[in-house]
Design the sequence.
């Protein structure tokens, strides 16, 4: 279930909302002022336990070299 970030168009407050499915229309009520005027924000997502760097040993690096 994704959590979306919204901004109230009346007071500018940012808040999160858990949405159960993509077809679910959540009740968006600003927790600061009670307005129902909110816009969905573009949010970055986080990952954990994933690394884009790899440590290669010399033997694995050597095996990738062209032969001949």
Sequence:
């Amino acid at each position: 279930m994704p959590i979306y970030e919204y901004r109230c168009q009346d007071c500018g407050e940012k808040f999160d909302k858990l949405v159960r499915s993509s077809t679910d229309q959540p009740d968006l009520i600003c927790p600061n002022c009670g307005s129902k005027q909110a816009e969905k924000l573009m949010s970055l997502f986080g990952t954990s336990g994933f690394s884009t760097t790899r440590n290669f040993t010399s033997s694995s690096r050597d095996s990738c070299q062209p032969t001949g």
